[in-house]
Amino acid sequence: MVRWFVFLWLALGNASASAYTLTLVTENFAHFQYVNGEGELTGPAAEKVISVLNEAQIDYLISVDNWSSSYNSAKRDPNTCIFSIAKSEQRNALFNWVFPIGAFTTSFYALKTANISIDSLEQARQYKIAVIRDNFSHQYLKSQGFVEGQQLLLIQSFERVFQLLATRRNIVDLVILSDAQFEHKSKSEPMSSELEPVMTIDNMYTQLYFACNKKVPSRVIDRIQAAYERLY
Fold it and tell me: Mind telling me which SUPFAM superfamilies this protein's record contains (predicted)?
C-alpha cells in the first residue's frame, strides 16, 4: 500500500517556483529512509531531502512504495524525483543526479547452517540468489552475466527476504543486501540472526543520490542544487 506524505513550502514572492509540485518516490530502505512505527518517514536520507527542499521552497508530495514501482515511476513520470538511488553506468543517462545522499556497501548473505563460502562472483553463479527487482544489485549482477530464473530470484522488497527464509528457504541459497540495511533490520528481525555475510562485493561501494526525471524543469533542478550547496 502506498503511503503519501504532503509537505507544502510556499515560495513567497516567487510564483514560478511555488506553482510547481514535485512528486518524490522512495522505498523503505533502512537506515537511510523508512516509515517508523508512527507512520512517519524518517532516517538520515529522508531528513536531508526534506531539509534541502524546505530550503529550496519547493512544494512536493512523497510516496513510499516498493523499489521497482518507485524506480519505474521516476523513469516514466515527468515531474518525479527519487531517493535514495545508487548511481551506475546503466542508470547514468536516465536521470538528473541532483545531489549525493550517502554511500553504502553490499554483501551476499547466507544461512549459517548452509556453510556456504565464496570469494568471487564466479563461485556465486552456482547458487540461487534472491535480489530485489530493479535495484542496483539486480542490475549489476545482470551486467555480470547472472540470469533471471537461473541464478537470480527476483523479489519485490527487502521484507520479502525474511518471508522466503521463513517459508521457502529451500529455493534460495544467497541473498544480496545492503550491509547498512541488514544491520538496521537485525535489531528487530529475529531471523536475521540466522544469516551471515559470506562475501562483500568490493566494487559495489557506491553513492546514493537524490535524482530526478529528465523532464523536471532545469530551473527547479538549479533551485534544489543551490539549496543543497547552501546547507552542505
Answer: Periplasmic binding protein-like II
